[in-house]
Design brief:
With 114 residues, this protein is mainly alpha-helical. The protein has 5 helices and no strands. The longest helix has 40 residues. Helix 1 packs parallel to helix 2 and helix 4 crosses helix 5. The protein has a single domain, classed as Ribosomal protein L20, C-terminal domain (c-terminal domain of poly(a) binding protein, Orthogonal Bundle), CATH 1.10.1900. This is Large ribosomal subunit protein bL20. It comes from Psychroflexus planctonicus. It holds the Pfam family Ribosomal_L20.
């Protein structure tokens, strides 16, 4: 009996990868083996960088809060310690947004914890 392959499924798998490789440069967009490697590597980077993105944003928020608190004569670590001591539960994202877009509200928070 001859060997049979499921060419419908194989074609669908290849088509899915080639669709993901759309927009790549050179052979990465139209040669199966090159495209497959490029797409796999791209997905690894995407997975890794979704986590790195969270780290980057947290550090950005910390830098912004630090800059704003120093304008009011306080350091970031003392400010965060005082927030916890006074049971003010605002996260870094919200604090950084207040520091940039609403300095008056941020100053009120700083005065409250001093």
């Amino acid at each position: 009996m001859p060997r049979s392959t499921n060419s419908v499924a194989s074609r669908a798998r290849r088509k899915k990868i080639m669709k993901l490789a759309k927009g790549y440069f050179g052979r990465r967009k139209n040669v199966w083996t090159v495209a497959k490697n490029a797409v796999e590597k791209g997905m690894l980077y995407a997975y890794r960088d979704r986590r790195n993105n969270k780290r980057n944003f947290r550090s950005l928020w910390i830098v912004r809060i630090n800059a704003a608190t120093r304008m009011h004569g306080m350091s970031y670590s003392k400010f965060m310690g005082q927030l916890k001591a006074n049971n003010i539960e605002l996260n870094r994202k919200v604090l950084a947004d207040l520091a940039v877009n609403n300095p008056a509200a941020f100053q009120a928070i700083v005065e409250k914890v001093k």
